[in-house]
Design brief:
Shape: elongated
CATH class of one domain: Alpha Beta
CATH topology of one domain: Beta-Lactamase
Radius of gyration: 54 Å
Low-confidence stretches: none
Number of helices: 15
Number of strands: 14
Largest sheet: 9 strands, mixed
Order of helices and strands: HHEEHEEEHHHHEHHEEHEEHEHEEHHHE
CATH architecture of one domain: 2-Layer Sandwich
CATH superfamily of one domain: PAS domain
Mean pLDDT: 82
């Protein structure tokens, strides 16, 4: 909102409101005076008419003519004549109505329209001491009346409403004209003075717009008044001088920043092929030499491996370049999925990929992102293998293992060669999970720690299948392992539910009930390796029960 508008909104009410109040007060006083004078005069004439009628009747009574109709008519005519003599305007009418509403006398021709007779009679019979207003002969009229019993008349004095209130309406019109003229004059004066007051501000605004649109800091404004607006103009001129000086410095620093940015970008382009991009970003945001030193963090660690890669490599013995081409296409798709899910590709181990989530930047959903990435990596093989078939090349099959837990992450190595990597027992367990995918003929295996972390993600529609409790090579303590899928069909979901129920019976040594559940699972999924394997274990334990200290842990003797 412009300052000129604000001046109008503040000053105009201060001018108009007192003016309106004074006009309204004057108008009200004038109207009350005129109305009171008109009413008093109306009442005076009515009183004189009533007195005259009473005198005429008194004469009849005194002379003994009250019973003669001709003499009564003469008296009535005298009242009518007197009424004509006290009328002051062409629109004033004195009339009389009988008790039945018949027009008995009128000083001017008067025709009652349909419905008006009954309305008039009802008003007059109420003997209201106030002014009455009614429609007579199609016109609104002001009426004062009295009941004259000797004649049986309602005697009334009436005047057209417009005539009665003519002076009041004239005052109303003049009041409105005066108020409108005063308001118009106030608005014109406000326009003139507001322009006068805001002209220096408008010039400053114009200069500022010129500066912002053209970056011309040589703009200056004229100091017109020795007041606050003048001081504002002087301040603006000082500001543009300082800005012009600062702009020169900014351009110099900007040029240096561009050069530094190009150097930084070259470094990024070189090293992001060797170091995860998030590590580079964190280093540039806080270039502390000790920033990436080792620390313990909760990570999701993923290993993936191509099944039977040695056999595949042998088929490319004569065309090793085709093998490298296939591997590059495979790695490109898999790495894109990992990085799109906020993962860090730690390293390539031959045909295997090691990746992790949770460092150097951690997220609340790192565990979930690792599983979703694994599922997408498995799904992406369909497109990759379709391309392989078109090229007449071998298809790839992979196994993915994921673990979640506390591991050590940071720069590992020497001054001359360092890697940002993850070490610890949790890493080894993740590698063992990938190896177990062959044993359990599953594309994806996760540990119980990761399974627990994913329990509060129902919106992702993940389905879990408890496969076994194993002690990997070199360990004595068992861990539960699971496979996971997303959006499985109803038959497979039913089979997985039966399998999970069977596992509960199995670990409670209820081998007969467990065997029934695994048999039902195989009935739905005939080729299911894990249900068949567990069904065989249950049959064996039914024949030869395990020792009392049996805990269901399967000890692995190979990686």
């Amino acid at each position: 909102m412009k300052i000129r508008t604000k001046i109008f909104l503040v000053v105009l009410p201060l001018v108009i409101l007192p003016l309106c109040i004074s006009q309204i007060a004057s108008y009200s006083a004038a109207i009350r005076g005129i109305d009171r004078a008109a009413r008093d005069f109306f009442d005076f004439k009515l009183a004189e008419l009533q007195k005259y009628a009473e005198n005429q009747w008194a004469l009849l009574v005194e002379n003994g003519y009250a019973g003669r109709s001709d003499m009564v008519e003469a008296a009535q005519h005298a009242v009518e004549t007197y009424g004509e003599s006290i009328i002051l305007s062409d629109t004033e009418i004195i009339f009389a109505l009988t008790g039945t509403g018949e027009l008995a006398m009128s000083t001017s021709p008067l025709a009652l329209l349909p419905g008006e007779r009954e309305t008039m009679l009802a008003l007059l019979e109420n003997e209201n001491p106030l002014m009455l207003q009614a429609r007579i002969g199609g016109k609104e009229r002001i009426i004062r009346s009295f009941w004259f019993f000797p004649f049986g008349w309602h005697l009334a004095i009436s005047e057209e409403r417009d005539t009665f209130y003519r002076d009041a309406d004239s005052i109303t019109f003049l009041t409105l004209v005066a108020a409108g003229s005063a308001a118009a004059a106030a608005i014109v004066l406000l326009i003139v003075f507001s322009r006068f007051l805001t002209r220096p501000l408008a010039r400053i605004v114009g200069a500022m717009n010129a500066v912002t649109s053209s970056a011309d800091l040589s703009q200056r404004v004229e100091v017109e008044y020795q007041d606050e607006t003048g001081e504002l103009a002087r301040t603006f001129n000082r500001m543009t001088v300082e800005l012009e000086r600062a702009w020169a410095e900014i351009k110099r620093y900007a040029f240096q920043a561009v050069l530094a940015g190009k150097k930084e970008q070259r470094i990024r382009n070189i090293f992001q092929k060797y170091v995860p991009q998030t590590v580079i970003e964190e280093f540039f945001s806080s270039p502390d030499p000790n920033m990436l030193r080792g620390k313990n963090a909760s990570l999701a660690i993923l290993f993936s491996d191509i099944r039977g890669f040695t056999t595949i490599s042998e088929s490319y013995a004569d065309t090793p370049d085709r093998l490298v081409e296939s591997l590059n296409r495979y790695f490109s798709g898999q790495v894109d999925i990992i990085m799109n899910r906020n993962g860090i590709v730690d390293k390539y181990i031959g045909d295997a990929i090691m990746a992790f989530w949770g460092a150097p930047v951690s997220h609340e959903n790192d565990a979930l992102q690792s599983v979703l990435a694994a599922l997408e990596m498995i799904d992406a093989l369909e497109g990759f293998n379709a391309a392989q078939r078109q090229l007449g090349l071998k298809e790839f099959r992979i196994g993915v293992g994921i673990n979640y837990g506390l591991a050590t992450v940071g720069n590992i190595g020497s001054e001359r060669k360092m890697d940002y990597t993850v070490i610890g027992d949790m890493v080894n367990l993740a590698s063992r999970m990938e190896g177990l995918t062959k044993t359990y003929q599953s594309e994806l295996l996760i540990t119980e720690s990761l399974h627990e972390k994913l329990q509060n993600t129902p919106e992702e529609n993940l389905r879990f299948r408890f496969l076994d409790t194993v002690a990997v090579k070199g360990k004595t303590q068992g861990i539960k392992i699971y496979t996971v899928k997303r959006n499985i069909d109803p038959q497979e979901e039913k089979a997985w539910a039966l399998h999970n129920q069977g596992m509960e019976f199995y670990y409670h040594r209820q081998f007969r009930e467990a065997a029934e559940k695994f048999r039902d699972t195989v009935a739905i999924l005939p080729g299911d390796f894990n249900a068949r394997s567990l069904f065989g274990r249950c049959k064996a334990y039914l024949t030869s029960p395990p020792p009392p200290d049996w805990n269901g842990v399967e000890v692995m003797h190979t990686k």
